[in-house]
Amino acid sequence: MKIHEKYISRCIQLGKNGLGSAAPNPMVGSVIVYNGTIIGEGFTSPFGGPHAEVNAINSVTNRSMLSEATLYVTLEPCSHHGKTPPCADLIIGNNIPRVVIGIKDPNDKVAGRGIEKLLAAGCEVITAVLEKECRDHHKRFLTFHEKKRPYIILKWAETLDGFMAPKKNKRKENPEPYWITNRYSRQKVHQWRSEEQAILVGTNTVLEDNPKLTTRSWKGTSPLRIIIDKNLKITKNYHVLDSKYQTLVITQGDSTEKKVEGVNYEIIDFSKKIAPQICDILFKSKVQSVLIEGGAKTLNAFIDSNLWDEARVFTGPNNFYEGLKAPQIIGTEYRCFPIGKDVLKIIRND
Predict the structure, then answer these.
(1) pLDDT bracket for residue 348 (50, 70, 90)
(2) Which helix (H) or strand (E) holds 29?
(3) What is the C-alpha separation between 261 and 105, in angstroms, rounded?
(4) What are phi and psi of 261, to 5 degrees?
(5) Separation of alpha carbons 3 and 6, rounded Å
(6) Alpha helices by DSSP H, the chain
(7) CA-based angle 19:23:25, to the nearest 5?
């Protein structure tokens, strides 16, 4: 492995520590190297805190080394004032002579200006190192800024014979989930919830399963809950309208008497394709990633509009023989592995 690739690879490892907490900032990783030795490391703090480069520089005990060091970073250092000062200015202020960057920042507020600042100050700048790997690492951030929509992950569980729910006569009278997968697979889903900014389901999923859509079996922040409820059928006795967590309902009308205090509402036109309209709402709300957990109608709405980036499909060890058919999807199989007797397949929309 080439030396620059070695250290950018380490930056990617570090950046993963910001998954679920850095957004809407990118989960950047940074390393500082002096004479072939790492003297500083950092990753993006939870939103509002210092960026990766700041944390890496602050971790260096002997600041005099910085004038002969190289700073590695997965994404172009910022050049603008946000919640924190520009990282490019900090690098220049510490006389770091060389900066190696994985990819440029597509954010309109940066878009090459960080590199221009560094070059104007006399820094040597090397770009496009492990570019493919850095793009994959920053897929949420890049999708948001380049495609003007969130990174969309579809998730469902299906039986060996391709059903995602049984016939209603197999379900209990009170709404609750009908589990296809084991508890380890379900815990994995809670981990995913902690990693994404939002989670989305349709009306029928709420009425039949009464889910909480929170992160309970994994440490982390619960995502924004988004519910598609065209006619506001869901009443406040369902978990998703308990106002304990931030919730957004997508509906068609302004029925004030049916609205629940503490819940936000957005109106779309259900006579048109709903997936693009929801993507527009989430983009305006600065939501960079969403996990869509169902049901079939909601999943198919995004599949039919080709608005998805990943599908994470669990297959349980049982058959239903009849019931609600799981979605059909065409993409590139990225990974496939067992979780107990379940199988998880990750498909990408390449």
Answers:
(1) very high
(2) strand 29-34
(3) 39
(4) -60, 135
(5) 5
(6) 3-15, 52-58, 87-93, 113-120, 131-137, 139-147, 183-195, 203-209, 274-284, 296-304
(7) 110
Catalytic residue among 53, 76, 158, 293: 53
What per-residue confidence (pLDDT) applies to 80?
A: 67
Sheet containing 70-75: order of strands: 37-43, 29-34, 70-75, 98-103, 124-126
Nearest to 165 by CA among 148, 178, 149: 178
Residues 237-247 pLDDT 10s? 999 999 899 99
Task: Dump pLDDT digits (tens) for 7-55.
Answer: 999 999 999 999 999 999 999 999 999 999 999 999 999 988 999 999 9
Return the sign of the alpha-carbon dihedral for residues 203, 205, 209, 211.
Answer: negative
Q: Return the residue matching tokens 């369902």.
A: 238
List the structure tokens of 102: 């994985």
CA–CA dist 187, 183 (Å, integer): 6
Rg of the chain over Cα atoms, rounded to whole angstroms, equals 23
**pLDDT tens, 77-126?**
987 666 677 899 999 999 999 999 999 998 877 778 889 999 999 999 99
Q: Which residues does residue 247 pair with via DSSP β-bridges, in sequence order?
A: 225
Under a CB-based contact definition with an 8 Å cutoff, are residues 267 and 251 in contact? yes
176 is catalytic: no
Q: Beta partners for 224?
A: 198
Please give the single-letter amino acid code of residue 318.
N
Q: How far apart are CA 174 and CA 209, in angstroms?
A: 9
Beta-carbon contacts of 172 under 8 Å, excluding residues fewer than 6 positions away, are none
